[in-house]
Amino acid sequence: MRILFVCLGNICRSPTAEGVFRRLLMERQLEQRFEVDSAGTHDYHVGKPPDARSIAAARRRGIDLSGLRARAVDARDAERFDLILAMDDENLDELRRRFDATYHHRLALMMSYAPDARTNAVPDPYYGGERGFEEVLDLLEQAAEGLLSDLLSRDANSK
Ligand code: 4NP
After folding, report:
1. So what's the pLDDT on residue 147?
2. Is the CB of 137 under 6 A from ligand 1?
3. What integer pLDDT is reported at residue 22 of this predicted model?
4. Ligand 1 pocket residue status of 124, Cβ below 6 Å
5. CB 3.0–4.6 Å: which of 13, 28, 29, 38 could bond 87 by disulfide?
6. CA torsion angle for 48, 54, 58, 59 (degrees, to 10)?
């Protein structure tokens, strides 16, 4: 199963989502079953590592994002990934515009996997303070748990 996390710049939210989900897979020894990547709807930061504030906040929770490099969403991502998870409604609308309708069933909001969270979007922390980066991690840790449970139960039901 291939999963792509998408935000605007691919330097704050979606690389954090990738790191959080990868760590969860490692903890459960499930890395072999999933391919995980992230991308941005814009190309402003292509080739750059995640924002230093995202790297620092993730590091405080034992997650290393420093090896990641930003890339822009590509038309082929729609075919390549089984599930493409947007961080907010703008990202989701942009993906709907870019991808052919045959692939729209692969698109969802990341926070739809955390129905108890008080928001359906992971707020963009780029122009805010440190607290925003902690909130991104809190929300993504919640959603990543929900996502993995959902994927594992789908898999169990298909057997
Ligand atoms: P991200 O955050 O979408 O979570 O990576 C942003 C990064 C950069 C910009 C906006 C949001 N920017 O405007 O450059």
Report:
1. 98
2. no
3. 98
4. yes
5. 13
6. 70
CA–CA distance, 109 with 84 (Å, rounded to integer): 8
Determine the pLDDT at residue 106: 98
What is this structure's pTM?
Answer: 0.97
Cα separation, 97 vs 39, whole angstroms? 16
Which residues of the chain fall short of a pLDDT of 50? Answer: none
Answer yes or no: are the C-beta atoms of 102 and 22 closer than 8 Å.
Answer: no
Nearest CA to ligand 1 atom 8: 9
Ligand 1 centroid from CA 14, angstroms? 10
CATH of the domain at 130: 3.40.50.2300
Q: How many alpha carbons lie under 13 Å from residue 9 in its C-beta half-sphere?
A: 16
Predicted local distance difference test score (pLDDT) of residue 79: 98
Please give the Cα distance from 101 to 97 (Å, whole number): 9
pLDDT at site 154: 87
Q: How far, in Å, is the centroid of ligand 1 from the Cα of 105? A: 25
Give nearest CA residue, ligand 1 atom 3: 8
Q: What range does the domain containing 105 cover?
A: 2-157
> Three-state DSSP class for 3?
strand
Q: Is the dihedral of CA 141, 142, 145, 147 positive or negative?
A: negative
